Each structure stands twice: as C-alpha cells, then as structure tokens.
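Quick entry between incubations.
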Amino acid sequence: KPRIFSGIQPSGGLTLGNYLGALKRFVEKQEEGIETIYCLVDLHAITVWQDPDKLRDNTREAAATFLAAGIDPKRSILFNQSQVAAHAELAWVLNCVARMGWMNRMTQWKDKAGKNRENASVGLFAYPTLMAADILLYHATHVPVGEDQKQHVELTRDIATKFNHDYGVDFFPLPEPVIEGAATRVMSLRDGTKKMSKSDPSDQSRINLTDDPDTIAQKIRKARTDPEPLPESLDGLKDRPEARNLVNIYAALADTTPQSVLDRFGGQGFGVFKPALAELVVEKISPISAEAKRLMADTAEIDRILGEGAQRAEAIAQPILQRAYDIVGFVRSR
Ligand code: TYM
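Done. Structure below.
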C-alpha cells in the first residue's frame, strides 16, 4: 500500500520554490486519497545555527502555511520531527550503515559546507542519514520532493538496501522519489542558474509565501531576463534559463504545461508576460499567506495539531523502530 512521507525545514519562511516543488504537491497527494505524512524537520534545521525563538516561530508559521495551503490534519499527519524521538534513534542506526564515501558525495553537503568543511557541524554531514531515517521509519513508498532532494532519496535507497543486505532481512522497502510537475527546480529571480532558496542573502532572488502583492509584483517586474520575446516552442527556451524559469513558474501555478504557456505568450515580450505572471502568483499565493497569518493568531491550536500529528506518527514509527532494534540485536527487556 502506498504511503507518502516528505518534509520541509522550518529554517526560515517558505519560498515559492518550496511551494511549487513540495507543498502544492503534498496537497495534491492528500487529495488523491493516499496516506500522507508531512514533517517539519526541526532536527534538520539546527544543522546550521537557528535562533531558538525564530525556530519556534518558523515551525509554527510553516505549520500554518501547510494548513492554509490545504493540508487537512484529519487526512494527513502533520507534525514536527523533534516530537517523535524515533527519528533521531533510527538515524543513529543508519549512521552505522551509511558509508563516509557515500555521504561525502552529497552535493548539498558540498555546497553548504563550502570550502570550510572543518568548521561545518557534524550534524550537517550526517543530515542525509537523518533524512533516510525520516523516510524509512514509516516504510514510506513515495517521497515527493523538488529536484534538489533526489540525491538524498537515492542515498536512502542505498542505505535501506545495505541494511537489508547486512542483516539478511527484507525489512525496509525502497522509497521512490516523486519529482513531478513543471517547477521541480524553481530558480533564483536574480540568476537563472541558481536555485531559489530561503538562504540566499538577496531577498529579491525569491518570492516568500508571506510577501504582500506589491512586493511580489515588484520582484517579478525586476526579475532578471533577456531582451527577447518569449519563443513559440520549448526549444527556444534552451539557453534562456531566466525565461524558462518564469515560464515554468507560470505553468506550475496554472496547472498547465510550459508549452501551453508558450502557446499563449509566445512572440510576446516580458512587458506583457511579467504582469500576467505577477497577477497569477498573487492570485495563488496571497490567499494562502492571508490564511496562514490568520491561523498564526492561535498558536495554541497550531501546537495542538502538531502534537496530535506527532502522536499519530509515533504510533506508526515506534513498532518499526522496535523491529529495527530487534534486527540489529539490541536486548529488548521492557
Ligand atoms: P528543504 O526544506 O530545503 O525544501 C523543502 C522541499 O522544497 C523543495 N524545494 C524546491 N523545489 C523546487 N524549487 C526550489 N527552488 C526548491 N527549493 C526547495 C525541496 O526539494 C524539498 O522537497 N532535506 C529536505 C527536508 C527533508 C525531507 C525529509 C524531505 C528532511 N527529511 C524526508 C523528504 C523526506 C530539505 O532540506 O528540504
């Protein structure tokens, strides 16, 4: 039976990239009636230092945004990772399965640690085994993510395979990354070769889900582009990363394909396309940020939802952790 697990770091406000690459698709999976488990991965967030008050705030705000975007805590499990201790516990076991060489090849580690690896936290290096624990702890079969997380899901498969092999069991199912839609890699508005990211120092590079309509319109108006009109066909976007990015964003928000966006806007300049895109982004994003803001007025209710989600998550995770401990050979006497 399919079971979906995915997570988002509450290490800042969510961006349009998080929305199109993840959250919007989380809602679609829930609507398809699949079992869905969504986690705000606060343990992952502290792999780089977080101000404690901001982390609390960002976790609640991310939860509010999930609810506002259509995650229904009755049909999906929504919780924050640190409330289910089994994540950290299984992660330790998987730390002993994963190999240094595999971890060293992770591009996110290389990007985030940069040249100064000696000064990166051990947690940042071990990040992918915690992510593998998140997924394997639920025997999840499908993991909807943006393009940038594909390598981590593939590593999760390698870790599951090695665990099963080393202990001679058929215990962890191999999860499939699910990378779908027109905007699996939303790019920076300032540089079409860089990913849109909440950690980019320039706020102009991204659209935050909390941006007001004027800010959104201004950021899109100023987004870097080339001077050519939009092409009629996808081939014409090949060497135009900024133009391609804006077309992909439009397609994803309008639930259509990039080609049908070009059918409508091909031959037109950005003077026409950008205002249309800004209007669409505002139309889709503003109701979510307004509703999230409304929900944030009652943080006790948000905390209650996360707590209840954590209990339901734990009920699935705990038996799987216990079986993993048995397989490994730990004495279980209570
Ligand atoms: P995070 O918090 O960086 O991003 C959350 C989700 O948003 C997607 N995403 C994007 N998609 C398209 N374009 C972008 N510019 C963009 N930026 C981010 C990410 O691909 C991701 O799906 N390691 C994960 C969190 C995680 C997780 C997990 C995911 C922890 N445990 C278990 C799945 C399953 C991360 O840092 O995502």
